[in-house]
Design goal:
10 helices; 7-stranded mixed beta sheet; Transcription Regulator spoIIAA; 5-stranded mixed beta sheet; single chain; Rossmann fold; about 400 residues; Archaeosine Trna-guanine Transglycosylase, Chain: A, domain 4; alpha/beta
Length: about 400
Amino acid sequence: MKQPEKRIVGPETVQMLDLGHPWVIADSHTKRWPAGQAGQVVSLTDSAGRFLATALLDPADRIVARVLSRKHISLDQSWLTRQLTAAIELRSCHAELAETNAYRLVNAEGDGLPGLTVDRYGAFLMVQLYCSGWRPHLSLVTRVLQELLSPTGIYEKSRPQKTRELEAVSDSKRYGKLLSGKPAPPQLEVRENGLTFLVSLEQGLNTGLFLDQRRNRRDLMARVAGKRLLNLFAYTGAFSVAAAAAGASQVTTVDVSAGYTEWAKANFGCNRLDPQRYEFLVGDCLAVLADLAARKKKYDIILMDPPSFSTTGKSRFTTRGGTSDLVAAALPLLNDGGLLISSSNHQKLDLADYLKELRRGALKTGSDLRVINLAGQPEDFPYPVTFPEGRYLKYAISVKVGK
């Protein structure tokens, strides 16, 4: 076996690697590395030559290398088969997947495959590469997945390099590509918590269903019977469908996209829920909240799951700072004793800072808001205890207490 080339890392990176972190961030030391290719497997050492880890190189990225193992390994079929088999077994043993066939099968760093995710959508698999280092190994990944799981088809969904582009591009663009097997229908039906949702494996940056909210949607179903729900930033309406199916007396679904709103109505129809019995509003959520407040509307549950960043017309939303304004605009519409459910997938905003945003919003309106539950992503989105960035999803349930 040919030995991988060595790359010396600086003392700060040594400390991070010794603490179990899986990333090497570009710095003055990595700038002195010899030229390498994305996908090259290298050995990381300290200045004294002590072996630290085997890593996948991605020289053009801010994360120039990602740790594959703390041992000497080869990124070959045998090693990849072991890693993927372990990921499959983790879901089989620990994930609550009753009446569900759409979930995450490989969660990058959480399954020892940093920069690589694999999602199951019924009989199909979706691969996403968050690291160019995986590109040369994609055919190997596809082959091993085919051998282990025999899916009908395997897709890759590509992603723009710049984060801001994720919110700026049209979701009508085709980002999905069939890697092997047979193509999926344009609208594929999948199951989650006993409900049916439509997903697209080819069109758009996302498939139409955020799998990391599955457990939180199930939690909502246990809380919503007989209640009036306002769902903001509803996307394709998965939370709204869950609420309606669980007996909510009123469901109002709000999103700025007319296309997503039509998709949401189709999801209602897939579950034998007549969309005409429910309210769908297309518009900027802050503007819609102002209009609903002017009309003296009241709700028992207000749910908000905005993107980390978005620009719609003259309105610009960011999680840091924007969340407090959103909370302040929503609370006057919430009945005393009602639930404010707020969520964010912003990786760079930790839970403590996110709660500060909720606090600022409550103080702006003089409201007494009490957190009764904090949740995150479900069991199929594991993360190493040494990798705090892996716990990105924040889902807070708060009660508005009357004075």
